[in-house]
Design goal:
Blueprint (H helix, E strand, L loop, with lengths): L1 H28 L2 H4 L14 E2 L5 E6 L11 E9 L5 E4 L10 E4 L20 H7 L7 E6 L12 H4 L16 E7 L1 E16 L2 E17 L13 H4 L1
Antiparallel strand pairs: 1-2, 2-6, 3-4, 3-5, 3-7, 6-7, 8-9
Length: 238
């Protein structure tokens, strides 16, 4: 009796695995041009469209001249996300006053139920995190993420979309594929001088000026590299 139970459970697990593999292959085999025709313009050869084993598809618009991202790299991203009907979910170049890139560490997005309800409740989904691997600083990549690797079978309601945690312009239907246009900003370390002024005493208006140095990160798009040196002000430190 025990042996039969183990055998049945093993067979059931095997069937589930086969279904998952089949679904991955079927999604990955769909031509990107068919899913999102506007993702590939006339200047892009369809042979340049690549597919990951998970079904995420992408095409590189620009290969950055910066270093290759490590598996746990922390990066600044400009991201534009769109639904299948071309409605914009968010655009970091326009939202919140513009020029507000996302800070993200690769490998930190977790989805505990791959083919169920996504646990992702952030602007960076499992599929987008997957697509960032292999990019260089300064690169621009267009990505199509299948629904299970985006916001899953629950999607994002209008109420959730407008919450501060997400800040989307619209909701996300169930199992909706999401299209991303992502740029990895190029960064460098710069040393800036900070002037600390301290008064001597109440009777002396003079001040002692002490210069100290601090290393900061300067990040910008590839065409503007090397980036402008950050201003060394008290406000910048706060």
């Amino acid at each position: 009796m025990t042996t039969d139970t183990i055998s049945t459970s093993s067979t059931h697990t095997s069937i589930n695995h086969d279904r998952r593999t089949l679904l991955l292959k079927s999604v990955a085999s769909l031509p990107l041009l068919l899913l999102f025709p506007s993702l590939v313009n006339a200047a892009v050869d369809t042979n340049d469209v690549l597919s990951l084993p998970t079904g995420v598809q992408y095409v590189d618009d620009r290969i950055g001249q910066g270093p290759l991202l490590s598996n746990d790299a922390t990066v600044l991203l400009h991201v534009r996300a769109l639904r299948r009907d071309d409605q914009v979910l968010f655009d970091t170049r326009e939202d919140d006053g513009g020029a507000q890139p996302l800070l993200h560490q690769l490998g930190t997005v977790i989805d505990s139920n791959f083919f169920g309800s996504s646990t992702t409740r952030s602007k960076i989904t499992v599929g987008l995190d997957d697509a960032l691997r292999g990019m260089h600083e300064g690169s621009i990549r267009r990505v199509v993420v299948p629904g299970p690797l985006a916001y899953g079978k629950e999607g994002v309601s209008r109420y959730q979309a407008f919450q501060k945690e997400l800040g989307f312009r619209v909701g996300v239907p169930r199992n909706e594929m999401i299209r991303y246009e992502v740029e990895v900003l190029r960064c460098r370390d710069v040393v800036v001088d900070i002037d600390d002024e301290q008064g001597v005493d109440d009777d002396d208006a003079a001040a002692i000026s002490t210069i100290r140095q601090q290393t900061r990160r300067a990040c910008c798009t590839e065409p503007n590299y090397p980036c402008a040196t950050p201003k060394a002000t008290d406000e910048a430190e706060k």
